[in-house]
Amino acid sequence: MSDRPYPFEKNRYYYGKMLTSADFQAEQRYHDSRRMFLNQLVLGTGVLCGLGVRALDERTLLIESGAAVDGAGRDIVVPGETVKKLAAFEGYDSLTKSTAMLYLKHKEEAVQPVCVVNRRAEQEEYEDNRIRETYEFFLADCPEEEKKGETEEFFAEMVLLDGSDYKVSLKMPAVVCKGRHVRLTLHIKNLSGSEGAVTVKGRLRLPAFLTADGAQELWIRQEEVVLQSGETKRQDYWLYTNEVEYGTTSILWDEEASGIFLDGDEAKCQPKPELALQLTERAPLELVRWNVGRRNLEEKSQGTGETAVCLARIAIADAVHDHILEEVEESDVKRYIPLPQTEDICSEYLDCFSYDGRDIVQPAYAQRREEEVVPVQEEPVLVRGGTLEIPLGLKQKKGKVYCSEEVLHGLGPGPVYVDVGILNVGDGAGRGSTGDTVIYGESGLFEGGSARGISAQTSVKVYESRGSFQVAARLTGEQNTIVLPLRWTAVRIPARPEQGEENKAMQIIPDTPTVRLPPGEKHYFSVRFKNMEPCTLTYELMDEGGGEVGPDGIYTAPARCGIYEIRICCREYKKVCTYVYAVVGGKE
């Protein structure tokens, strides 16, 4: 309403009062203002029932019957269906964009003209006896930015990237309840017609929160997300709020360990992004009621100034100066007003989506993924050791090579690393007491460190297939012993994954790659997700006349026999795809 209806004034009746048309108008205005005022505060602007919009053909819209409340609190009733050409709507000639909004507005018209009795000199001979409350539909250009409702004040947002093509942000309630789970949502929105791939890799520091595994940091990873113009991808993460003593906290974006990439090139993120939050002891229901009710009357009355009710967003194509309908979208545009009479069915419906994490069977697709994506267990490191002696003989010669017998190291066949050192014992070779010293490598480098006067170079040959090794030693100086005492150590090398196995590629695997069908029969092509979260799939026929496949993956075989190929692809990750085949011609 342009003028405030309050303070409310009503007629005061008394004996002998002369009633004029102004008094009767004041009586009407009082009751209308009270009803509209309550509608504004209690219901707001939106649709009470019906008013569905759909295209009958490329130039005609059908609008169902229904009721609504506009921004001024006035009731609008559409008693029957309306079928109307696009060009016949008010505002059509003023459209300048390819996207328009369809609105419903309140309208009054004077009807039932009657002859005026005892009229004044300046008064017309006939006056309209009634004012009929009716409605009108009109079109207007889609606004640049859709207006945010008052519920947006309840949320805090951390903008990570705000570019010309993409916006990446994190959003959660601005006030969080202690001791409860809360949802943090990642939003990736395409702001232009560009279809570049977006990759988000980041680490969030959570001083007052815990992740599902008890950590105070959350890793976010979305790879090569491809969106259409205006499309938004969201990913939810659940956090537990600690019962801390303080009342404010922040979630921090770790800039050093994080990054956002557009087509492989790192984008410049917002400097030092932070999500400032408040913590409260209130329960969620109490908190939301408090947030909704705390706005004063001046804030409630400011509004946006828009009194019409938005019904749909309409995409219009210009076919040689002749506009045609491309798409009619009601979701995220039309607001339905919740009513007490629908509370029971709403509660029953919402119970189907209430998740408390207890006594709930794991989804089948998650079980398949867990069975398939088994973490690679690294082989434990095993160590063996001991001593051995190489006989040198009485006639020792500098530069001569002596070899040991083949020794079993006890770790079995496979890759094993063996090292040997010259053992220096105080009382007999090979004793292995705690006072011994072992020299690995060139023993002559230590001053006076040659073990019992032994100076030699050693080498080891490992027989992986037999689980054994052999040691060779070359004398590099004069010796005063007839045996060369050595200490050996064998270490099993853990098996390394093959190249590319460390980072396994994301895959979708069809449960039935090839199926035989008679003409006209249906089959559902289901897939399993490997090394990735389940995502939306798209299905595409590769052969003309190869039947039909719906967006849910249900394939209908054609009447013509043959072998037909269907491509299954992840909508978010275009490079992740697979192919299935339908052999049409009767089952064997």
In short, what is this structure?
With 588 residues, the chain is mainly beta. Helices cover 10% and strands 42% of the residues. The chain folds into four domains: 44-147 and 304-360, no CATH class; 150-300, Immunoglobulin-like, CATH 2.60.40.10; 383-492; 507-584, Immunoglobulin-like.
**Poorly predicted regions:** 358-377, 427-432, 499-503
Class of secondary structure makeup: mainly beta
User: How much is the radius of gyration in Å?
Assistant: 40 Å
Count structural domains: 4
Q: How much is the average pLDDT?
A: 80
The quaternary organization reads as single chain
* Spatial gap, N to C terminus: 73 Å
Please provide a written account of the structure:
The longest helix has 23 residues, at 21-43. The chain has four domains: 44-147 and 304-360, no CATH class; 150-300, Immunoglobulin-like (Sandwich); 383-492; 507-584, Sandwich (Immunoglobulin-like), CATH 2.60.40. The protein is mainly β and 588 residues long.
